[in-house]
From TrEMBL:
<keyword id="KW-0411">Iron-sulfur</keyword>
<keyword id="KW-0479">Metal-binding</keyword>
<keyword id="KW-0004">4Fe-4S</keyword>
<feature type="domain" description="4Fe-4S ferredoxin-type">
    <location>
        <begin position="100"/>
        <end position="129"/>
    </location>
</feature>
<dbReference type="InterPro" id="IPR050954">
    <property type="entry name" value="ET_IronSulfur_Cluster-Binding"/>
</dbReference>
<dbReference type="InterPro" id="IPR017896">
    <property type="entry name" value="4Fe4S_Fe-S-bd"/>
</dbReference>
<dbReference type="Pfam" id="PF13247">
    <property type="entry name" value="Fer4_11"/>
</dbReference>
<dbReference type="InterPro" id="IPR017900">
    <property type="entry name" value="4Fe4S_Fe_S_CS"/>
</dbReference>
<keyword id="KW-0408">Iron</keyword>
<protein>
    <submittedName>
        <fullName>4Fe-4S dicluster domain-containing protein</fullName>
    </submittedName>
</protein>
<feature type="domain" description="4Fe-4S ferredoxin-type">
    <location>
        <begin position="21"/>
        <end position="49"/>
    </location>
</feature>
<feature type="domain" description="4Fe-4S ferredoxin-type">
    <location>
        <begin position="67"/>
        <end position="98"/>
    </location>
</feature>
């Protein structure tokens, strides 16, 4: 089975206490169709005006007719050493010890904006309805808890997104991270993000 073929999130995974979920975005496969962003919005009921996920397009690059665009995913990086967690005064932002997912307890959030200021990736926002900090959680509440893959992964028509457990040696994300030239944004900060990218072979690379 190809590493790009989707499987249920519960398959080939480590024991619940040892999972380390991660996502890989292959920019060479991404066509910028925004199917992922729309699926995320619908499944997680994200209001207009804010977004858990964005695909940023730059270009065109090169000379006509050989022009290319670069599509980059911007969303929560689910850092191993998350600045948002470190600065949260109430414990509302935390790393789930069973999955490694960075989560938010809405009822604990006081809207102080510390996490938003601390996030070097600028992907957090205040939800206009709950008034709590919000962001991508890999669809933990809406899909992962049911053994399903994140909405962005299943909606991608080109299989540019691969999700899985980094502790599972049989998972597609594990194999790709170890065999492909992947990179992560702002690694020098020591955040150890779990959003990996296969950079576009052509076009500008935005770091």
């Amino acid at each position: 089975m190809s590493a790009y073929q989707a499987t249920r999130a519960s398959e080939h995974s480590s024991p619940a206490s040892q999972r380390k979920y991660a996502l890989l975005h292959d920019e060479n496969r991404c066509i910028g169709c925004d199917a992922c962003t729309q699926a995320c919005r619908e499944v997680n009921q994200v209001p207009e005006g804010v977004s858990r996920l964005e695909i940023v397009r730059t270009g065109p690059h090169g000379e006509y007719p050989n022009q290319t665009y670069h599509f980059e995913r911007q969303s929560c990086q689910h850092c191993e050493n998350a600045p948002c967690v470190n600065v949260c005064p109430t414990g509302a932002a935390y790393k789930d010890p069973q999955t490694g997912i960075i989560k938010v307890d809405e009822w604990k959030c006081v809207g102080c904006l510390y996490c938003i200021a601390a996030c070097p990736y600028k992907v957090r926002f205040i939800h206009p309805v709950t008034r709590a900090a919000d962001k991508c959680d890999f669809c933990e509440q809406t899909r992962l808890s049911k053994g399903e893959l994140p909405a962005c992964v299943t909606s991608c028509p080109t299989q540019a997104l691969v999700f899985g457990d980094l502790l599972d040696t049989q998972s597609g994300v594990y194999q790709l991270v170890r065999t492909q030239p992947v990179s992560r944004d702002k690694e020098s900060l020591g955040t150890s993000p779990k959003l990996f990218k296969i950079r576009a072979a052509k076009g500008e690379v935005i770091l």
